[in-house]
Amino acid sequence: MKKRPDVIIFEGWCVGAKSEKNTTLNKAINSLERAKDQKKIWRKHVNHQLKSKYKNLYSQLNCLIYLKAKNFSLLQKWRLKQERKLWVKSKAKLKIMSRGDVLNFMQTYQRITQNMFRNMPKYASVIFNLNSNHQINSAVYKKK
Hints:
This protein has helices at residues 31-36, 41-51, 53-58, 72-89, 99-123, and strands at residues 65-68, 126-130, 136-141. The chain has 144 residues and is mainly alpha-helical. The model has no long low-confidence stretch (mean pLDDT 93).
């Protein structure tokens, strides 16, 4: 007999992210957008995906837990640390991204992440505010 699971955890950096107003896409927020997305093709595509496919997917979640960092620069610091740890664990066998590669890569998700900083606390079921050491500083629980 096959049983359905009681809980499924669906995790990821931008899980639960919502689209933004199209007018907010006009202003580039980082050097990548200024240099490589002057016509707003990437911004509009990502926003459309959040408005359609991802909205449908995320609407199936019955609880949303948000791990909230203080700011985007702290996330960059953590991602750089993660890359270094990966290199050390692999005993220097893996080629890791350079600092510039990591920071450039993260710019592709900066807009979504900053939008989540502003808006996710309004609709997440649980918000864990993290300190600079990845530890939970405080928690906010909301009733649905």
